[in-house]
Amino acid sequence: MELLILFTVLLVIIAIAKILKAKELIDKFKDADSDPVTPAEIKTNATGMLVFGIVFFALVVITMFSWNKYLLPSSSSEHGLEIDLLMKTTLVIILIVFFLTHALLFWFIYKYYFRSGKKAFWYPHNNRIELAWTIIPAFVLILLISYGMTTWSNIMNPVKKKDAVVLEFLSEQFGWTARYAGKDNQLGYASFALYGKNKVGVATPFAMEDRLKETRESIETLVKDSTEFAKLVANGWNRTKNLDDTKTSLKNFRANERRLNAMIAEYKSNPAIFKAGEDDKVINSDSILLPKGRQVILKLRSKDVIHSAYLPHFRAQMNTVPGLTTEFVFTPKYTTEEMYQVAASEGKRFTGYILYCNKICGASHYNMKLKINVVEDDVYKSWLAQQQDFVEAFK
Amino acid sequence: MAGGHEHHEHEHHETFISKYIFSFDHKMIAKQYLITAIIMAVFGMGMSVLFRLQLAWPGEKMAILNFFLGDKWAPEGVLDPNMYLALVTIHGTIIVFFVLTGGLSGTFSNLLIPYQIGARDMASGFMNMLSYWLFFVSSVIMLYSCFIESGPASGGWTVYPPLSALPQAMPGSGLGMTLWLLSMTVFIASSLMGSLNYIVTVINLRTKGMTFTRLPLTIWAFLITAILGVLSFPVLLSAALLLLFDRSLGTSFYLDSIFVAGQPLEATGGSPILYEHLFWFLGHPEVYIILLPALGLTSEIISTNSRKPIFGYRAMIVSLIAIAFLSFIVWGHHMFITGMSPFLGTVFTFTTLLIAIPSAVKVFNYLATIWKGNVRLTPAMLFALGMVSLFISGGLTGIVLGDSALDINVHDTYFVVGHFHIVMGAGSIFGMFAGVYHWFPRMYGKLMISKLGYLHFWITFIGVYGVFYPMHFLGLAGVPRRYYTNMEFEMFQDIQFINPIITVFAILSAIGQFIFIFNFFYSIIKGRVTNNNPWKGNTLEWTAPVERIHGNWPGALPVVHRWPYDYSKPGYEEDFVPQNVPLKEDELDGH
Question: How far is B20 from chain A (nearest CA, A)?
Fold first, then answer.
């Protein structure tokens, strides 16, 4: 590798030295009015453009076929098949335009390169032609736009089914936690006020009281620390940053105490929404299960910064944004086992379904993933039944 | 106005400082911008080579990384993931803002606007000088931020909060981020001063006969670019200021429900999506702020060197305006999957794909211009034609990304990286190179060495496609951008072989750029002296004397009688008729 680079650099330097020498010799014979480029240079470069065009086309075609096996296998969600079809249609159109316009470009450059004494064809405009190449692209694009918009609307406004799997992914630096809805098939209320040992912040009555206690303990410690630091600073200690940090933390925890108190008050007037979380199932694992053929309603939340939940095999992606719950709905079409077959039949390699982060989120952004296993519905049901309810797990 | 300039001409005793440093002269300011941009580009490009090394050979000990980044960021030659993100971020920031916004517009708007409209200088020379020096200060702050202990900003060039708002979230969000925001604030002030100056100059200082429909397309492009800048940069300024407030003053415009470093933050009630809207309201027009000047330069160069009028001059202007208008209502296509209302996704898909129509018109007009032309393949012309090729290739993949349904699966993958580097990165850089080769005689009265120009073109053209074409495959395989390495995923291990290929091409093209830099500086000193119109162009800058004098033309300003594209016009012996040549009897202008 290094040798190759060194070799290239050397070649370039030699080329430059030769060119400079030649230039100096030639410059002696030239005055200010002589042509800056020679006909021979123009011809060489015109030929170069044609050769480049041919090689470029050949490489594009070759790579399109030989590298196809590295691309994602066909979609394993129902809506993804629509996306794949739209993608193929779009790619065919853009490849036609790509080859056509580039063929003209390279050909014209070669065909019409400069010959002295020749005069170019005076042709400043032609309204009919211009109208034609405005209307034809417009027409093609309107078709593509309507196709794209319909597909998008179908994907983003799905009819939600009663037996759908309701599943939440909570993102944080640098991992994912999954929470399944329990028997009531709805996810309980969760808040960032409860994060701590309560990994996804489910707000059940017990969890709120517990977190309140924890918050008060933190406040006590911080108060102690800050008086300590204040004394030290007063005695000339130069690390004022520690004092500032403690004060900020204290503000944060006091705000959280107020928040929790408000929630607990809310619970007394409206207990139902805080009970819904009790049967949720939080999965502490780097892999989860999904059933084949059932609609999955993904709810997405984030703990700290923006992340993006990307499930390429299902053609699903949605950002997770702190302060918002975003949503994406899809239906897995093949179990993991079946997907191995599907991919193999297309000559592609499949290494299992996976969820990963696709929005820059910090140092370990490149390694923030969760394995997903799609199985038959009964396998999924018995797996889910084994998972502990939140209320049991969080004691 | 004219009186003031004549006064200038008589004075003529300038000190070194007033001539080379705090110059009011548009030509000197253009050169200052260009040379600053070249220096910034070397940094930006160098960074890309460093992180490409990591991507090609992840985790390998590379002495070169340790040499440039030191023991803290590349212990034993292994790149630190935080530094990787910082390099990606500063590479993007430098190239997008400092090279392709400040550098491109600053160089060519300054050089060409007064020359091509027949003015003695910009409307306000002082503001022009101030604009450059603010640009210089912001460049220095941006570079300085790379040398602080916690490292420069590293949340990506879009610096989305909360990541960029929380120093707890990554080291780069500390002081480095503050400096980034400071630098950008100064940069925006510089850009606004420049843009206002360009607009006022084009509207007010056109010479006699220079109507709007006789303006060269370069000037149209610079004018529209400046208008885009004036309308969109203030929005980025407000976004940056609000972010600064969130970081330093305890506000929460962008923060809500955040739990970081073991603490629930006090700040609630804001929305990171607000930042995204504000950012991309600049961010998308910004793409065209970068691209339109390049399109203007190539239009001019292609027409001149095809010895043929630009085909469909008016259609070219209309499509420029259409692109500029549409660019303001497409920002949401960067946000299809942020969770904004799906209905907005449909709207933004519609407006985004409409941009393909004026773009297609431009491409077909370029092709029609070289058709039956007499194409002089100067280095500038090669770069201009290369730009057309890149504009087509990168523009077409934009149809995939602009379609919300397709964007779901390619958003933020290498497909995007390939797309925008080809169309707006390399495309505009090619436009810029074309401009430098073409107008170098106007700047220095000398020619650049054409053989080195050809060598530079071929290395760069092959290099650019070699780097960015394979990235589309990575994207379609699902590889995300901004990953320190792909090797943590079994599914990407097969396709990893593409990364070394890309890196080798990246290194080759980087080496190729030093040919240009050498050629540039060597030719300033030892280039062959040329006459005032080496390319036989029609526009007014070629009617000025070779010497770059104050006020551009000795004596009276030229008077314009015709449009700028009378190349190979029937009835004339020569294949060009400069704009200041009066029309013959019965001769129609532009027909």
Answer: 26
